Structures are given as structure tokens and as C-alpha cells.
Amino acid sequence: MRLLIVDDERDLASDLAALLRREGWVVDLAHDGHTGLALAQYGEYDVLLLDIMLPGRSGYDVLKKVRAEDPKTAIVMLSAKDGEYDQSDAFELGADDYVTKPFSPVVLAARLQAVLRRSGIPRSLQLVCGDLVLETTTRRVRRGRHEISLTPREFALLQHLMREPERVYSKADLLDAVWDSDYPGADNVVEVYVGYLRKKIDVPFDVRSLETVRGAGYRLVPVRAEPAG
Questions:
Q1: Which residues carry this modification: 4-aspartylphosphate (predicted)?
Q2: Does the pTM of the predicted model rise above 0.70?
């Protein structure tokens, strides 16, 4: 799952991002309305978490602009303002939920998942490639009838690859999508995790769905470990 947090309280945003990353989310951060709007317009996010009081451009303005262009992405407003009119304004502009500060990060994470379930967007529910199935809201993966246990990072990598089967992703693409734009490490972490994934989704089933494209990157192709039907 990809999430954009737009909040000028940097410590709060960083702490929340760290928690959600441990849960397998891919999180980007912005600390003002203009940057948040630009990222929301040109990125591909499952959820936007917007503070109302932002420098440069208010969260309401960002919400209104994004919702006019994208009616599907889930948007959750975050604010210290808990008046009923504030919440009413947010919902009228197209927000899917409204969370007041202070809040429990664990509860917020659960509410983000609930928003995704209510959104009814197919891409946020189930991804399929051959007989490999990934359920994003329940975080379950299976090949055929066999359940596969993945770590949060392995899950995030597989989810990204499954969004566009047969597309070739470079290491840079995967680093940006799965390890976030500010990842400080070396890009060989992608090779390491591709190896981890192969040992779980391919090797036990004697298939080769996660391919290396020499000089270009990686792609996931549809294969079946069991006869169809």
C-alpha cells in the first residue's frame, strides 16, 4: 500500500510513517500544501492523509483539488480541530474519514485499512498473476491453495510487482516504490529481497514467475503451479 502523509508537524509525521512502514506501507512525506498537492497529483497513492492546517495551501484546498481530479483515492483528514462544522466541511469536500489529534497511531492504522475496505477500489483488494493471489486488505498471499507467509517488506515488493504483471521494473523503480524516496542504503537490497521472494513464491512450487531481465530489472509473469480448475 502506498500512503502520502501531508503534515507540517515533522516529528509526528515521521513517527507515524515509521509505524506504518513496519506494517508494510510505503510512505512518502510532505510538510506543506504545495508539495503535498504536487505529490498527490503525480504519484500513485492508495491513501492520502492530510492535515488541515498546512503552510502554503490548506488541507481543504488540497482535498478539493485532488478530489476533483481523482474520485477514487481514499483521503483521510487529520486535524486538531474537532468541531462538527470542520468535519462536515471535510466530508462535503470529499474526505473519506476525519481523525482528530491527539490520536493512537495503532488505531489510525486500523482506520486507514477500514477506509480502504470501504473504498471498493479493486486494486486495493486483490491482485492476481497466474495462480498467485495477493489480498491487500487482509495481507494474505497464496499460490493456488497454498498460503505463503511474507514479511512486510516482501509483501510490499510483491504487491508492487503484481500491480502490473509483465512490466519490467528497474532497481531504481523498486527502490522508490518499496523503500521510499529517501532510502539511504545501496540498491543491492532489491536483489536481496527478490531472492527472498523467489524462495517463497517460486522455489517451493517449481515455477519461475519472478524473472530477471538482464540490464533492465525484474518482472513478474503469470504461471501456474497447479492445473487450472
A1: 51
A2: no
Nearest to 166 by CA among 229, 226, 225, 216: 216
Nearest CA to 31 out of 6, 52, 11, 49 is that of 6
Closest CA relative to residue 6, chosen from 42, 43, 39, 50:
50
3-state DSSP assignment of residue 169: strand
Q: Which helix (H) or strand (E) holds 75?
A: strand 74-79
Which value, in Å, is the radius of gyration of the alpha carbons in the chain?
19
CA 176 to chain centre: 12
In contact, 216 and 168? CB cutoff 8 Å = yes
CATH 3.20.20.70 fits 126-220, yes or no: no
What is the tens place of the pLDDT at every residue in 67-122?
988 888 889 998 877 667 677 888 888 888 988 888 777 778 888 888 877 766 54
- Domain 2-119 annotated CATH 3.40.50.2300: yes
Alpha-carbon torsion, ordered 199, 171, 36, 110, to 10 deg: 0
Contact predicate 77/52, CB 8 Å:
yes
